[in-house]
Amino acid sequence: MAQVPTGSTFYIASSIATAKTVSTASNAAECVVGSTAHGYSNGDIVIMFSGWGRLNKRAFRIKSVTTDSFVLEGADTTNTTWFPSGTGVGTVQKISAFTQITTVMSPSSSGGEPKKVEYKFIESDVSYSINDGFSATDYTMELDADSIGTAGYTALKTLTDVQTDTVLKIVTRSGSLNLVPCTVALNETVMMQDGSINRVKATFSGNNRSVRYAS
Q1: Phi, psi of 187 (to 5 degrees)
Q2: pLDDT tens sequence across 120-146
Q3: For a tag on the chain, would you pick the N or C end, based on fewer CB atoms within 10 A?
Q4: Residue 154, CA distances (Å) to 14, 106, 131, 148 in order
């Protein structure tokens, strides 16, 4: 069923727990992560810092928790060319708290398109192109300038100052979930336009691919 943005809610990871060591990361349809006495629970959101570039800095929901392991829901690491066996270890951090960003207007995304390399052989009069990865993905949104002092505004301001890795969580009215690993830049310069309320702009610069869950 088609969806519209109305009713969506936005959250920023405002507290991230101390890193836990990742001792193993399996090649599987859903990656099994080994981390001794991690203390996590099913449904927690974590950020992976991995030797696998395609997994590094991505955010996942976890499931199938045991004392010393958990599964990254939807993280397909079966391809050993992209995920060489034994090299995916690193650290993992649980998101301890998400803070809602309120008074959101005009959310939009940009980037994520394939980057193309174009070439032509001398003997041919036709050019060719191949994909060379994807451009970085950004989210932007405007906020009511009078939301200054709210918990969400304060969290964005703090993250702008420190420039640490965080996660933007978007929940649609249907319950689907989008996790965007990013850094934050809040421009507190007030945008004034006749016929509109005063606004400020927040930009979320993507660190890797986002992850979506149906609910």
Answers
A1: -95, 105
A2: 999 999 999 999 988 888 999 999 999
A3: N
A4: 10, 20, 40, 7
